[in-house]
Amino acid sequence: MQKVLITGFEPFDGERVNPSWEVVKQLNDREIAGTHIVARQLPCVFGKALTVLNTAIDEWQPVMVLAVGQAGGRTDITLERVAINVDDARIPDNQGQQPIDQTIVEQGPAAYFSMLPIKAMVHALREAGIPASVSQTAGTYVCNHVMYGLLHRLSGQQTVKGGFIHIPYLPEQAAFHPGAPSMAVQTVLHALELAILTALQVKHDLKVAGGATH
């Protein structure tokens, strides 16, 4: 049976949980559209996160890799369009590293675009009543580091797709960030199930607006 690898992160920056892992771990060993889902946790650590990811790819040989991360302050599920070749950490990672203006891959391209049908995925989520949008930036922290490293590994081949999704805080996190938006576990879980299903079934992305004015 073909496999999809989905990853979430450990908590960081003083949070007690990371919503990406709290949701992603519930998908482990499930089956979607005849495809077995394997969930793995990544450390919120520059370099080490990619080592763990690459080991999991080598072990499971998935047809698709979907990395998921926390984006506290965002209001919806955001499908990342692009990863850029720079680490510029506003805060240290979980091992105290704080790279500034460092390339992720020496001599690598400035950016990689997602290999997933992100606009079709946004459409599917919205049709299900789940707030979703295309994001034009994955930041410059460990999430972007993982997305860029993943797409760099997958570049030049046509058999494995990869991309990144950011999700909001969980309600129990937002309780400690007054005014911050949140999304319930079950809603995010349903969103990720739909995202995987759509990415597996759609071969050519929708040609619809998904840009931003600023």
UniProtKB/TrEMBL annotation:
Keyword annotations: Cytoplasm, Hydrolase, Protease, Thiol protease
GO BP: proteolysis
E.C. code: 3.4.19.3
Reaction(s) catalysed (UniProt annotation): Release of an N-terminal pyroglutamyl group from a polypeptide, the second amino acid generally not being Pro
Pfam hit, one: Peptidase_C15
GO terms assigned for molecular function: pyroglutamyl-peptidase activity
Subcellular location: Cytoplasm
Gene Ontology cellular component terms for the protein in this record: cytosol
Function noted in UniProt: Removes 5-oxoproline from various penultimate amino acid residues except L-proline.
Family, per entry: Belongs to the peptidase C15 family.
NCBIfam families reported in the protein's UniProt record: PRK13197.1, pyro_pdase
Alphabetized HAMAP family for the sequence: Pyrrolid_peptidase (MF_00417)
Subunit structure: Homotetramer.
The protein, known as: Pyrrolidone-carboxylate peptidase
Lineage: Bacteria, Pseudomonadati, Pseudomonadota, Gammaproteobacteria, Enterobacterales
